[in-house]
Amino acid sequence: MNAPPWWLLALEGRAIFEWGAWLLSQPWFDKAPAGDGHPVMVLPGLLASDRSTWPLRKFLSDRGFVAYPWEQGTNRGPVAGLHHRLRDRVAQLADQHGSKVSLVGWSLGGLMSRVLAWECPDEVRAVVTLGSPLSGHSGATNAGRVFQWANGKHPHDPELQSMLGGHPELPLTSILSRGDGVVHWRASLVPAGPLSENIEIVASHLGLGVNPVALWAIADRLAQHPQRWQPFDFSGWRKVFYRNPSLEPLFG
Q1: pTM to 2 decimal places
Q2: By the 8 A CB rule, do 170 and 117 touch?
Q3: Fold category of 6-240 in CATH
Q4: pLDDT tens across 28-52, in order?
């Protein structure tokens, strides 16, 4: 599997329009599914920090979730000690609220979220990923060299690949776009199952965390009761914005 073509990567600048759409969609956000007050930790993408996830966290907080930053600075990948700090943070939030923590991860943050869910099933409620290369195909992203520069590890590193092998037995939703210029959309697909699903939207990679269509889907997924989880409903008006990529692709 190859990385997205150069021309798609060059179009990532369109994310600025998704930021504008986020501002204009505030009234529509009031109609998004409401949360039950459980904690949600949001993990940023490669070389991004909590500043990049502020719009997403604000949206979740406004909808009744208790949204938290990851508080680990710039995401440079699996640097020394990071994984243990993240496990400690998940445990601390779960203990503080007396409930499991949902994880929302953007790109590399989604990979980290899935690993945390696999290792901490008693403390994680659900995982939602945004444009994350969950398949483990290291050649399917245009960020491989940046990843290696950021933390000194090659994407083919056996230790890193082994971390991707576990599939958590809890709700996992992958939100992806065929217009993603950084991660090939097929690399974001997860095997559909009783607790796993894929949701396709139209978005850029850099705009996934502010795209109003993505945010609405995130709220919908996090609002699901963990014991009564149901797959995403693609019927009705949602057909305009969402598709099941294994059945009805939006384009291409």
Answers
A1: 0.92
A2: yes
A3: Rossmann fold (3.40.50)
A4: 999 999 999 999 999 999 999 999 9
Going across the sheet that includes 124-130, the strands are 66-69, 39-43, 101-106, 124-130, 172-176, 196-200
The full set of domain ranges for the chain reads: 6-240
* Residues near 149 by beta carbon (within 8 Å), at least 6 away in sequence: none
Sign for the CA dihedral angle at 40, 41, 44, 48 comes to positive
* Number of alpha carbons in the 13 Å side-chain half-sphere of residue 120: 27
Each residue of 141-159: pLDDT tens digit?
Answer: 887 666 664 555 555 555 5
Give me 102's structure tokens: 């949902």
Angle between helices 54-62 and 212-222 (to 10 degrees): 50
CB atoms within 10 A of CB 54: 15
